[in-house]
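Private note to self, pasted from the team thread so I don't lose it. Backbone tokens:
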């Protein structure tokens, strides 16, 4: 058996293998509600053979959406509509499903990527975003509203309420989005957080609000639900958030009862300089795992099965996640199992497609 296809324990659950389908925004919701597209998209990823599937960034309040087409979980009707989609997916696949809860902060109110992705002003039908400080992502964009104490309390409650809805949906767990330049990452980075209260300034202060969210969500979830956090390990900008800060943050979220950390990078500043290459973010995951002992997911151009196997077999990370690679090849786990000489789950309806030269690939 390869290590990639061996079981792994995350908090209260044991996954069949170490391949995670990472959350991927689809920009296809209607007023926060999933559409037929989501049933198709999640359905075919659910039968991929991966160990777990994470639903795309799902906004905890309307103004926390990246675009007006983002999924949301800020009301009972949104819970009910997502339940209908999950019922269809679960009827076809038993894969554990989590949801990534998110707030876009200053990167909210944008067009869909295929419409250019630019920020949309209130005059064009958008809205004024919220942020730690009144600093836009790009100088020409909307100056966000700097959150006051009441705003922080509102957002904390929104995360709590969304987590409770995730529990009511019988999801395996929740991943809190603290990466890619969205709201909680904005609090972490000194490039976007210039507050002069107890949520700004020192590293301890900049950690305060994200940790407040992690603690509140952990308290809202029963212990049989997984809690993870996704971070950007570095801003890739001098003077910004970096790997040393990420290690400190990981130690603190572990104390809060976090079950895993999902290690990405970048997204906070247009000045970022990223040396993109296969596995380029893996050293960050490796260091966080080594220094904190927190179960870790590595991500970032991990599309070669041999590379994925090396990452988990050498202890650089406990799991690997694929996003765009899984969109391109929704059966990537099947192909990885074939390449590594291992076995993978497949639906009964597809068992007869097992290639002639790979008898035993599909677990029966």
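Design output:
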């Amino acid at each position: 058996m390869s290590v990639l296809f061996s079981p792994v324990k995350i908090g209260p659950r044991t996954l069949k293998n170490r391949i995670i389908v990472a959350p991927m925004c689809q920009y296809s919701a209607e007023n926060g509600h999933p559409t037929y597209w989501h049933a198709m998209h999640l359905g075919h990823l659910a039968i991929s053979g991966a160990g777990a599937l994470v639903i795309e960034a799902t906004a905890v309040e309307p103004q926390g959406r990246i675009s007006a087409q983002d999924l949301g979980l800020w009301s009972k009707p949104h819970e009910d509509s997502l339940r209908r989609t999950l019922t269809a997916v679960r009827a076809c696949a038993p894969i554990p499903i989590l949801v990534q809860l998110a707030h876009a902060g200053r990167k909210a109110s944008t067009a869909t990527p295929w419409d250019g992705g630019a920020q949309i002003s209130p005059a064009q039908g958008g809205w004024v975003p919220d942020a730690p400080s009144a600093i836009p992502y790009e100088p020409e964009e909307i100056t966000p509203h700097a959150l006051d104490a009441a705003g922080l309390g509102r957002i904390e409650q929104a995360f709590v309420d969304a987590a409770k809805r995730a529990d009511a949906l019988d999801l395996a767990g929740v991943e809190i989005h603290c990466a890619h330049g969205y709201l909680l990452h904005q609090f972490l980075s000194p490039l976007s957080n210039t507050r002069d209260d107890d949520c700004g300034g020192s590293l301890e202060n900049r950690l305060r609000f994200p940790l407040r969210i992690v603690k509140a969500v952990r308290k809202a979830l029963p212990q049989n639900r997984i809690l993870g956090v996704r971070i950007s390990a570095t801003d890739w900008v001098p003077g910004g958030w970096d790997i040393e800060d990420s290690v400190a943050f990981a130690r603190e979220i572990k104390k809060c009862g976090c079950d895993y950390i999902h290690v990405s990078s970048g997204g906070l500043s247009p000045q970022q300089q990223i040396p993109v290459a296969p596995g380029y973010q893996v050293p960050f995951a490796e260091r966080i795992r080594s220094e904190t002992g927190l179960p870790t997911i590595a991500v970032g151009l991990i599309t070669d099965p041999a590379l994925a196997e090396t990452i988990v077999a050498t202890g650089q990370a406990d799991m690997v996640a694929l996003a765009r690679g899984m969109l391109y090849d929704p059966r990537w786990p099947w192909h990885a199992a074939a390449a590594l000489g291992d076995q993978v789950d497949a639906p009964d309806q597809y068992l007869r497609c097992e290639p002639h030269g790979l008898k035993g690939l599909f677990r029966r």
